[in-house]
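Take a look at the protein record below and tell me what you see:
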Amino acid sequence: MKLKAEQIRYHFIIMLLFFLSMIFLVTYAFLFKYFKETEHQIYDSHIEKLQDDYLIMTGGYTSIANLIFRSSIQTDDVLNILDKLDRATEESVKDAYRQELNAELDDVYAVMKSYGFRQLHFHDSRNISIYRFHKPEKYGDDLTGIRYSVEYVNTNREMISGFEEGRIFNGYRNVYPLERNRRHIGSVELSISMAAITQQIESKFKQESQFILLKSVVDKKVFDSEQANYTAWSVDDSYVLDVNISPTCFLENTITPGESGQIRTALAAARADEEPFSLRIRNKMRSNVLTFLPVYNFEKEVVGFLFTAADDKSIRSQTQSFMAVTTAFAILMLLSLIFMYYFSITNRKIQNMIQYDLLTKAYTRRLIFQKLEEEHQRFLRYGNTYSACMIDIDHFKKINDQYGHQTGDSVLAELSRIIMSRIRQSDEFGRYGGEEFLLLMPETELETAARVMENIRVIIEKHSFSLVGHITVSAGLAEADSNLEKTADLVEQADSNLYTAKKKGRNRVFPSPVSDQNQDQKKTV
């Protein structure tokens, strides 16, 4: 017998250890999943922030460009020069007008550059470059098929904003149509360098920032003589850096070949999916979250990425917390399991005592009032009405006096079962006190509630109770009102109507259904 007891104890310990291990593994998996979800949320917050920063900054520069265009370019003097230049046929005459245009706007261009603008470029109505303030010696080239923005504005004669690579520089461009005496004479662009955006991110948000551009875009559009404006990106040679923005990458010599491969793979996927992304790099030299935002051209194609590097302290903190919680959980698991076993038994008993009336199995007074408050809050929020009904057993005192309190308790329990079997799943039913009950009917108007309660009243009247035979009930109804200050007022109104039902002779619902009211009126006539 002793051996058998030892075997039982041994098997119990083995089973307990098995279940502890299973609980630990499941909990670890749950915590790991939670950690990963939190990590993704951190990545998403970096992406959302960079998206917002980009939109805010480009929107701000567009507002400045609009102001410069209206105040300094869309003027009679400038438009007159451009009109004459457009009409001129001899190149020497055009050159004279170009010099006149330069003299007129040179100071304006100097101010623009101080605000981060790089290009002030005029084009005629046939998409031919007229004058580049950033490269005065380069003009006369046809931008058709190269500059979508210029073609669009000259065709549609409406302003457009967005990123685009040009013959010399790339930039976030604001291109405007030009008219003189209602005659379209061309277009002008006011463009900021992507350096303006990266510098703003670095100065305002203290994050390293860089812009990379697809090499294929540069090869297709940029003059051969201007290819030196770009250099290969050390991480992925299918992208280039604008040397006027940053000749070297801040990641250079600080990330491992494996991390470079990880970035290249993520970039290829992001370009195909046209989605931003974040990833984490960790080595001895740096530990950062890199966030890449696709940059689109006017034709909605991904042509580059703006990316930032932010300290990964949030993820490090999450990792440390995860390890600490996991370790603590493993240590306390055995004690927790034993405690939870006894706690669950005790708690179940307590919850049943708190929620349900021991005699009738209906909700307790406390819980039914809680349900009432919740229903009223839904009513105030969504406007879906509801009704409350106070139910009382007629002459219940006589039942107790004649048959005893145990029989009275049996009647209360049997009545509760009848009512709960006749109401909807969404209805709430609780014991108000003594022989009184409170029924809540969500999304139910007073008339409908009265018909439902009348049906229940009839069923109770016809039912033969096991110890006392037939009994009757009276009921008072009230419908929710937006002017109701507190739910207790609704209960008070239903209770008042219950009193009226008693006063009118008991065994009735008040207010009674419309059909019953009509019958009462006919009887009176």
